Amino acid sequence: VLVAVFDKNPEVGRILAVLVAISVVALVGGIIYTFSQADVFRGNRAADAAVVLGGGVWGPHTPSPDLRGRLDAAARLYEKHETKMIAVTGGTRRFNTYESEIGAWYLRHKGIPAADILTEHKTLNTAEQVLYVKDVLMDSLKMKNIVIVSDNWHLPRALLMCKWEHIRAKGYASDYRMSMQSELFWRTREAAGIQIYMLFGA
């Protein structure tokens, strides 16, 4: 396509070629950024809340393997007294309930007290979940020390969003692992998501 455009209008062709090159460089840079290990939670001080970002559900009592890994990671923090509460996000409605409620059910059956689990029913994506942290946990509930719990390929984008919203948060990665092909797909998707967020804030 670029060759055809270049032959017909060299000036437009050169502009398109530059834009394509910039897009490729930005995407590759974004993929590299998804390997960032900055702002990792060390457990030096107990967090006010470990926030589990949504990851899908497969049944009324069945978190997806992705979400289950995140919930298990948050439960470990709680059991080690490294977080006071667990906040489960996810407003997607499935199986006559919300994703966050299925996550909370899973945590209760792992022995986490219901009184120490928060849920919300409005957020549908990472950007909205970051705003939930800011508007509800920090502004309304006055929490200050927040840990974002997600997959290692997802945390860099989530923490970048936190920085853009002036949220000082650390990240804690789950142990869930997928195939190399699947991980490359999700890292590429995250890289594109970073570019979209930086351009449009969504």
Structural overview:
The structure is a single chain. By secondary structure, this protein is an alpha/beta fold. It folds into 2 domains: 2-33; 49-177, 3-Layer(aba) Sandwich (Rossmann fold), CATH 3.40.50.620. It has 7 helices and 9 strands; from the N terminus they run H-H-E-E-E-H-E-E-E-H-E-H-E-H-E-H. It has helices spanning 2-8, 10-33, 65-79, 99-108, 126-140, 155-164, 180-200; strands at 49-52, 57-59, 62-63, 86-88, 93-94, 97-98, 117-119, 146-150, 169-173. The strands form 3 sheets. The chain has a 5-stranded parallel sheet with strand order 7-4-1-8-9, sandwiched between helices. A two-stranded antiparallel ribbon has the order 2-3. Strands 5-6 form a two-stranded antiparallel sheet. The longest helix has 24 residues, at 10-33. It starts with a helix and ends with a helix. The mean pLDDT is 85.
Q: What is the SS-derived class? A: alpha/beta
- Mean of residue pLDDT values: 85
Number of helices: 7
Number of strands: 9
Gyration radius over CA: 19 Å
Question: What's the N-to-C terminus distance?
Answer: 30 Å
Work out the strand percent.
Answer: 5-15%
Instruction: Assign the CATH topology of the largest domain.
Output: Rossmann fold
Number of domains: 2
Output the CATH class name of the largest domain.
Alpha Beta
